[in-house]
Structure prediction request, 497 residues.
Amino acid sequence: MKEIHHFVNGKIFHGEGKRTGDVYNPAHGEKIAKVAFANSKDISKAVESAKKAFPGWSSTPSITRSRVMFKFKALLEKHADELAEIITTEHGKVLSDSKGSVIRGTEVVEFVCGLPQLLKGEFSENVGKEIDSWSIRQPLGICAGITPFNFPAMVPMWMLVPSIACGNCFILKPSEKDPSCSIRLAELFKEAGLPDGVFNVINGDKEAVDGLIQNQDISSISFVGSTPIAQYIYQESAKHNKRVQALGGAKNHMIIMPDADVDQVVDGLIGAGYGSAGERCMALSVAVTVGDIADKVMEKLVPRVQSLKIGPGIDPEIEMGPLITQQHLEKVSSYVDLGVKEGAKLVTDGRGLKLQGYEKGFFMGGCVFDDVKPNMRIYKEEIFGPVMSIVREENYESALQIVNEHEFGNGTTIYTRDGDTARNFVNRVNIGMVGVNVPIPVPMAFHSFGGWKRSLFGDHAMHGIEGIRFFTKLKTVTSRWPTGIRSGAEFVIPTMK
Prediction:
C-alpha cells in the first residue's frame, strides 16, 4: 500500500511519528494509502529547516523571488492534468472541477509574479525640516497553513504562494484525507528553483495542528475549515502571539427576486449547490425565493436535481462525484433525517444511493428541502453536502433580513433584473463576498477572499493585497542626515515645524 510521508528541507521526510491515517478513493470506497502523522519532533525538524532557509530567502531580491514564481506557474500549467487526477482520486470531485481549482490556485501565483510592484512602500519628503519618512514591508519569518480536504491545491496556494513570495518560509499541514497533492506541489516548487527549507509539508491531525500553534518560532497561522475549528485556531494562536487568518464555515444564500430569469437561477443553483457534492465553503445551500417565483423555480429545479449524473469523478461525463469519506456521508445523511423530523418538506431524497460497480463508494444523490424555516438546524448549520434548502419569503426586506441575521457571512448572491434592487442588496447585505446574477462570487486572485461574522476570524482575508499585507510587517522610517552641529537634544515629541 502506498505510504505518504512529509516533505522537509527539499526532500521526502519519513519522520519519527508512529501514528498514521487512512486515505481513501471515495468513488471505490477503498483504502489506497497510509499517511504518516507528525509528532512534535517532526514539526521541530520542519521549523529548523525553515529557520535555516529564512535569512537567505528573505534577503533574496523580490525580482528574483518573482522569477521563481514565474517558473512555478509554468510547471503548474504543465502538470495541471496530473494534479487534477491526484485531487479526483483522493477527494472524488469531477476532473473538470479539480482542474478548475488548480487553475484558480495558479492565478494566485500569477498575481504574485508582480511582487516587486506589490511590495513597494510609500515615501514622504520633508515631513519635518530636512526629515524624510518612508515605509517598507518585510517578511514575518516562518508561517504555517492548515488547509481543508475540499480544495487540496487551490486553498494551500492561497496561503503558501503569497507567503513565500513575500520572503517568508512556509510549513503546510494539509488535510490528512487527501495529502498527496501538497507533496506534489512541494516537488514542483523545488523544480522551479525554490531553495530547500523554504517550503515544507507536515502531515498529521490535531497533534500536528497544536504543535504548529504552540511553536514559538512560527509567526503566523492561516486556516480554512469549519467555524468551531477556525475559532479554536484563532484563540489558541493569539495566546501564542501569532498573527492569524482563519476562515470558517458558511451558509450561502441566493435571493431570487420575482423578476429573475428562472433558467439562469436553476443553472446557478445546480452548479453552485451540487458541484463538488456541495463540499465547498462557497456552495449555495439556501435559496430564498421572494414572492410567487418559488413554484416556478421548483418546477425546473427538482427534475434537474433528480437527473444529476452521479458517479466516479474520473469519468468526464459525470456531474457530481462522491463525498470524501463514509463518515462524512453518514453525517450529511443524518442532516437529511433531521430535516424530515424538523418538518421541512423533502422533495428530492438522495439518501441510500448505490451505483453499479461502485457499491462501496461514498455516493449520495442530490437532496432538496422545501418550506425550510430559519429556526431549523438544517438552515442554521453548515451541512457541507448536496442538500439544498428552499426558504419562501413574501418580500425583499424579509429575505434580506434572514440573510443578515444568519451567524455566517461568507458568500451570498441575488438574482434579479432590477439594478436598484441589486444595488440596495450589495450595499446593505452583511456578507463578505457578494454576487449579482453570479452563483459563486469567489474573487479573482488580484482581489481578496474572505467572509464576515463567524466566517472569518482575524483581520485579513486571503490572497490579493490582503494576502500581501498579512504576510508582511510594516516598518516606517523617519530619517534626518545632519550636516553639522545641531542645536542639541529636544525633549518634545516631534511635531511639524
